[in-house]
Amino acid sequence: MSESVLRQRRPTVAILATGGTIAGEALVAAQTIGYTAGVIGVDRLLSAVPELDSVAAIRAEQVASIDSKDLDNALWIALTHRVNILLAQDDIDGLVIMHGTDTLEETAYWLHLTVSSEKPVVLTAAMRPFTALSADGALNLFNAVTLAAYPDAAARGVLVAFANRIHGARDITKVSTYAIDAFASPESGVLGWVHDKRVEFQRRVTRTHTIKSVFRLNVINTQNLLPVVQIVVSHAGVEGIIVDALVNAGTHGIVVAGTGNGSIHATLQKALVHARTQSVSVVRSSRVGSGHVMHNAAAPDDILGLVSAGTLNPYKARILLMLSLAHGWSEPIVLQSLFDRY
Ligand code: ASP
């Protein structure tokens, strides 16, 4: 850590606990798969990591106790509001969110687009429950707090501290169902590392986020209703019936997890072209898990009125499309410029 980024006073880090495996409990310590996520309260989780005291003063809150597979819009909206309120306080230097691994990448990108502060926001999680042998949550939490308290972690958008690596919210994705090192940032690589109270960054985040983002929650009504955006997958033998059903149900947007470079089965493409005639926005992404979906390459986007997702995976493309539609931006050319920028 260089002198220029050392603080003069002890930092304060807010922690928001939402549940997940990091708060999971099993009957016996040898159980690492059969357990209940999101049951242990934040006070007990923190008392297992007294070393946090050597890094920052902590202010913790329990905002939810869920398995993140069950996450919904209401919790995303509540999280953004709470993060914005806490980070507006002068005496809070950074913030950590304890989350489940299943949808961590989605929440990270949601916050990346909707938080209005440059202070560090760091998500962390665990692959093994709190009660397990070799549970990974305590060290991940310690590293997340270290990162949130590190002044040079500011203005890099939302970060994830996991298994000693620092990932950017836009890049990270879960790549293993069981491994302790369950996340990767395909194509772009990690932003840096956090080890033993030391933080090292290797690159900056170039896409627009947080305070420069145009996406703000004041466009969302009090019922937490966001435009309905669903994901469909292109595969051998796929039929158009799913798309037709979504259109009939009044869906506002569809993200296609295409094959390869976002290519779409001819049958599915026919249904999607029909969806466009019903004013449904359609974004082309890829089911491959890494790489880039090139505009006007595997499909004539401009002719069909489609938008290409670039390096955003289908789940993150859904978030960007949902927020764009919530702001009233549905023209393909406008959507494409947003997908090229965020
Ligand atoms: N199902 C859990 C969750 O996402 C998995 C985990 O946290 O690792 O909440």
Question: Overview of this structure, please?
Answer:
With 342 residues, the chain is an alpha/beta fold. The chain has 2 domains: 9-211, 3-Layer(aba) Sandwich (Rossmann fold); 227-341, Rossmann fold, CATH 3.40.50.40. It is 27% helix and 19% strand. The protein contains 9 helices and 14 strands. The protein has helices spanning 42-47, 73-87, 104-114, 137-148, 241-248, 266-277, 301-304, 314-326, 332-341; strands at 12-19, 57-66, 94-98, 121-124, 159-162, 165-168, 173-174, 183-184, 192-195, 198-201, 229-233, 253-258, 281-286, 307-308. An 8-stranded mixed β-sheet has the order 2-1-3-4-5-6-9-10. The chain has a 4-stranded parallel β-sheet with strand order 11-12-13-14, with helices on both faces. The protein has a two-stranded antiparallel sheet with strand order 7-8. Helix 5 packs parallel to helix 6. It is globular. The mean pLDDT is 96. The protein binds aspartic acid. The site of aspartic acid has 11 residues, from loops. One of its GO terms (biological process) is asparagine metabolic process.
